[in-house]
Amino acid sequence: MTMTVGELFEALSTRFDSDAAAGLNRTLQWKITDEDPGVWAFEMADGQGRLIPGGVDAPDTTFTTTGATWMAIAEGRQDAMRAFMTGKLKVKGDMMLAMKVPKLFRTGF
Fold first, then answer.
1. 36-87 pLDDT tens trace
2. What range(s) does the SCP2 domain occupy (predicted)?
3. Most buried among 11, 16, 65, 88, using CB within 10 Å?
4. pTM (global) more than 0.85
């Protein structure tokens, strides 16, 4: 069964590793730009995480990509660093925070 981009973001909090996020008070944001566009933010505070559909005004890090690329990264079929290096994934803001994302969320379903 294939999830939609929206369903994938709704499932994000179930894949959040609160131990890895201990002490982080930051907000990540994803901007999906293709046929199923949307913006989702994920706020981390004191080891807790919450999804914010529609995004926020001032995230610490923003990822911009297509739904297909994001699904492949989230499902573990695409390496996020390779997607970034080939221009499929754009990152704006705190690059150190962006590098921690693979540790903050478990991939695969």
1. 899 999 999 988 999 999 999 999 999 999 999 998 988 889 998 999 999 9
2. 17-105
3. 65
4. yes
Number of domains in the chain: 1
Tell me the CATH number at 64.
3.30.1050.10
Instruction: Give the DSSP per-residue string, the chain.
Output: -PPPHHHHHHTGGGGB-TTTTTT--EEEEEEE-SSS-EEEEEEEETTEEEEEET--SS-SEEEEE-HHHHHHHHTTSS-HHHHHHTTSEEEEE-HHHHHHHHHHB----
Host domain of residue 90: 5-102
Q: Which amino acid is at 42?
A: F
